[in-house]
Amino acid sequence: MRLQLGVAKLGLAISAVALVAVWPRAHHGAAMMAAQDDPAKLSDLQTAEALRQDRGLIARQTELALSAGDPDLARSFVELANAHQVVLPEDLTRRVDDAVKSERAPAQVASRFATGLVTGQGDDLAALSGTVAGDLFVFGDIRDVIREGKHLATGEAADHLVLGLAAAGIAVTAATYVSVGAAAPARAGLTLVKDARKVGRISSGLAGWAGRSAREIVDAPALQRAVADASLLRPARTLEAVKAAVRTDKAGGLMRFAKDVGKIGEKAGTRGAFDALKVAENPKDVARAARLAESKGGQTRAIIKLFGRGALLLATGTWNFASWIFSALLMLFSIVTSLKAGTERLTQRWLDRRKRKAAKRVLAETTRPQPSVGAASAAAEA
After folding, report:
1. Within this chain, do residues 194 and 337 fall inside the same structural domain, yes or no?
2. CA distances from 201 to 105, 230, 279, 345 (A)
3. Same domain, yes or no, for 216 and 360?
4. pLDDT tens digits for the chain (382 residues)?
């Protein structure tokens, strides 16, 4: 009995120590799995865990962003640090502020705006503003349609994604004017996706989906005929011909995708949208990124930089989280089992002790000496 009780006590002690060891990981895993459909909460949990393991993480990443000439990313890390009560060196924050001011100098902004307007390419807000301006005045989309369409007509390699996005953009631009800006997010989103494609900032999976969607909404023969007669000198005629080649009834999926990209650009900036397009593999990932950007704003770039696609969904680690949770439950079950076994042994020990005491009393009573018959009679006569 003592051996059995000792084993139960030992099992209880081991299980309790193991539960204390695995509990933090199991708690974190359970929280991560519960937040897998909420990108904002998921990113908060990941950031908190990363900072628990390495408090200097954000400071180092901010330094790296400045060294890479990306003040916008550095500013995003500063915002993330403020949100998680991480104090950065005063010198570091001052250098970030100076770099951001330099990048936003009027001369620099004007130069990048002009570059975006003329070339249709840009990776920051100023350049994108020029690109969007060109697309809103149809110039940019017609330029892209003519360039890629000519390649297609002559048998050269054409970027079907850019061609389809430009054709869809022409139709959306008309809708933007008619609805007094209601379609503006989709218009900006299409431009962002086009620019991301041109500078190689869109994932292969997302580019494949967008390319298939763009082909579905474009009547290729009609577009080839429109391109054959297209000219920047006759924008109105080219505009009508290209609009006629776009099947707007099949553009729902692409427009929802473009609106989500536009929301990311609005909340997290152009480069934030590019970063999201780089890690997203499908439209659902982009929708999650839009939700993240709406919640986190300027912190979005820093979060995506730290966690990649994992900032959008619980893509990896699910099995690890589940195993930690299972381990914690197993330890808890072991504790309950050990408590049960120990309680049973103690109860049995108490019962056995009572039985032994009762047996001793009975034995004592049966062995007590009885008075003789003569003695009893004399006592009675007296």
Report:
1. no
2. 26, 29, 9, 68
3. no
4. 566 656 656 666 776 666 566 666 665 666 666 667 788 888 888 898 889 889 899 999 999 999 998 899 999 999 999 999 999 999 999 999 998 888 766 655 556 555 655 555 555 555 555 565 555 555 667 777 777 777 766 667 777 778 777 777 776 664 443 343 445 667 778 878 887 887 788 898 888 888 888 777 777 677 667 666 655 556 566 667 667 767 767 777 888 888 899 899 889 888 898 899 999 999 999 999 999 999 999 999 999 999 988 888 775 555 565 665 666 676 667 767 766 766 776 777 777 777 777 777 777 777 766 555 555 555 555 5
What tokens does 235 get? 């924008």
Question: Which range of residues forms the domain containing residue 16?
Answer: 1-36+320-366
Total number of domains constituting the chain: 2
Q: Evaluate whether 71 touches 65 at the Cβ level (below 8 Å).
A: yes
4 and 114 inside one domain = no
Determine the Cα–Cα distance for residues 5 and 7; give it in Å rounded to an integer: 5
Quote helix, strand, coil % in the chain, to nearest 5.
Answer: 80, 0, 20
What's the one-letter identity of residue 189? Answer: G
DSSP state string for 48-107: HHHHHH-TTHHHHHHHHHHHTT-HHHHHHHHHHHHHTTPPPPHHHHHHHHHHHHHHT-HH
Q: How many angstroms separate the CA atoms of 191 and 183, rounded?
A: 13
